[in-house]
Specification:
This protein is of the alpha/beta class. The chain contains six helices and five strands, in the order E-H-H-E-H-H-E-H-H-E-E. The chain has a single domain, classed as 5'-nuclease (Rossmann fold), CATH 3.40.50.1010. Helices cover about 50% and strands about 15% of the residues. Strands 3-2-1-4-5 form a five-stranded parallel sheet, with helices on both faces.
């Protein structure tokens, strides 16, 4: 089992943005209780989405925090392959999600065997067939940086 973090979930986790930080931590804890061997994953797109604001702000400490997270040995970074782009195209056409969100969903669906839980606070992802959502908070459409 894999727990795939949407960029907003990672931003709230790393930057400790409340009230969502506590909700992300609780959702991760619950998912790990149900699936103790679960690994974390995120898309290569999340690297861009998470680092833009700290880079713009010159916040080297936050950049270092993200870089350390991205370098974790037990983290899977899902690459944006031609197959992921094709899947994102279909997701965007069928669901109306924005392009970055369609890419995130396609990356989650591309996670190798074992199943995947998609951790987000954006309820619009429920439009994606086959995506198992773990939603936190009650905000629909709160995006990332």
């Amino acid at each position: 089992m894999t727990i795939f973090l949407d960029a907003c979930a990672l931003i709230y986790l790393i930057e400790a943005k409340e009230p969502f930080h506590a909700q992300v931590v609780a959702a991760l804890r619950q998912a790990h209780e149900r699936h103790p061997q679960a690994r974390l994953a995120l898309s290569r797109l999340s690297v861009l989405e998470c680092l833009v604001k700290p880079l713009r702000d010159g916040d080297q400490g936050l950049i270092d925090d993200y870089r350390a997270f991205f370098a974790a040995r037990d983290l899977t970074l899902v690459e944006i392959t031609p197959e992921v782009i094709e899947a994102a195209l279909r997701i965007r056409a069928q669901s109306g999600l924005r392009t970055p969100d369609a890419i995130q969903a396609a990356c989650a669906l591309a996670v190798p065997e074992g199943g995947c839980l998609f951790l987000t606070n954006d309820k619009r992802f429920d439009r994606v067939a086959g995506l198992s959502l773990v939603a936190f908070g009650d905000v629909g459409g709160a995006g990332s940086a």
